Amino acid sequence: MRVLVTGGAGYIGSVVAEELIAGGHEVVVYDSLYKGHRGAVPAGAEFVEADLADAETLRRTFRARAVEAVIHMAADSLVGESVQNPAKYYRNNVTAGLALLDAMRDGSVKRLVFSSTAAVYGEPEKQPVEETDPTAPTNPYGETKLAFERALRWYEQAHGIRYASLRYFNAAGATRLCGEWHNPESHLIPIILQAATGRRTHVEVYGDDYPTRDGTCVRDYIHVVDLARAHVLALGILGERSAVYNLGCGGDGYTVNDVIGAAREVTGREIEVRTGARRPGDPAVLVASSSKIRRELGWEPEFQDLRKIVSSAWEWLQAHPNGYGEGK
Ligand SMILES: NC(=O)c1ccc[n+]([C@@H]2O[C@H](COP(=O)([O-])OP(=O)(O)OC[C@H]3O[C@@H](n4cnc5c(N)ncnc54)[C@H](O)[C@@H]3O)[C@@H](O)[C@H]2O)c1
């Protein structure tokens, strides 16, 4: 299939592009590089540097490349920033997303895999969270992802665009070529590894008095390759139907202390930890159930072990101490 990956120069999108190419698909990466990195676009992919809001370039790209499906990863995804600046999130995650859907409608592209988020569930009442649980986002990031999911339902009804929405918490780990390099970095594993390299002085743990095994929050980490494979797998159902799937690590999740312990083991380095206050709105446990996608699509994560996840991120960071070398 010829697949356009929006946000394919970003962390997860670049690995999705790698997996597509490995699976024999032709890939067009569409990314403005406003956050992503040219060096993250796999060699076998065609690259279009443009913004989603640029409707004309989108239309031209669909026409000229005979695109058959889209994997939509481009978005803003910082929870705190979304609370400070909701307009930015509505503009990029909803309005620019609609420009993509309109261009798909005009170009008769009928298949879309959407990288949603488990933030659509807000603070779930039970764990692990399932697709049938109520959605109640607690920040504009989750709210705008849910708004786009809802738009997908109506675009399917009106224009026959089928979709698979994938909802997950924390992508983690790396391939040999592509790893996580965000500025600012908000994700736990790269933050811990930056402390291991001395790029930051310490890791701040937000609260150690939660009702969990060791008092620190429990979260779900999925290896980015397993995630990317789920996106590629989801393309397969779109000839027949639309669907929503959660993706989770499949177990009980990992505490912040588990992750720090794994990083100390993998790196063999001291990592200074300072324990601060809880952050408002941080639930004790957030874990997603993958039962549905395992059952229906046969998705089997290969790199679920926390040590494998941290090792792959560490290997990438050692090979790329300055990220993609662009100063961002
Ligand atoms: N990283 C995670 O743990 C996680 C968890 C759940 C969901 N997600 C979702 O996965 C997707 C990818 O996340 P990521 O961590 O790889 O993010 P990222 O910031 O590394 O990648 C996003 C990419 O999209 C591009 N982009 C953003 N807006 C654009 C626009 N208007 N036009 C063109 N390009 C644009 C950026 O330049 C960047 O390359 C996002 O949609 C995010 O909401 C991520």
Question: Your description of this structure?
Answer:
There is one protein chain. The protein contains ten helices and 13 strands. Helix 1 links the parallel strand 1 and strand 2. It is of the alpha/beta class and 328 residues long. The mean pLDDT is 96. The longest helix has 21 residues. It is globular. The structure holds nicotinamide-adenine-dinucleotide. Nicotinamide-adenine-dinucleotide binds next to helix 1, helix 4 and strand 7.
Structural class: alpha/beta
The major beta sheet can be summarized as:
7 strands, parallel
Please give the alpha-carbon distance between the first and last residues: 33 Å
Which sequence of strands runs across the widest sheet? 3-2-1-4-5-6-11
- The average pLDDT score comes to 96
Quantity of strands, as a count: 13
Helix content: 25-40%
Report the sheet-strand fraction: 15-25%
Architecture blueprint of SSEs:
Layout lengths: L1 E5 L4 H12 L3 E6 L14 E4 L5 H11 L3 E4 L6 H6 L1 H21 L4 E5 L24 H20 L2 E7 L1 E3 L15 H10 L5 E4 L11 E2 L1 E3 H12 L7 E5 L6 E2 H12 L5 E4 L14 H7 L8 H14 L9
Parallel strand pairs: 1-2, 1-4, 2-3, 4-5, 5-6, 6-11, 7-10, 8-13
Antiparallel strand pairs: 9-12
Helix pairs in contact: 1-7, 2-4, 4-5, 6-8, 8-10
Bound molecules: nicotinamide-adenine-dinucleotide.
The site of nicotinamide-adenine-dinucleotide has 27 residues, from helix 1, helix 4 and strand 7.
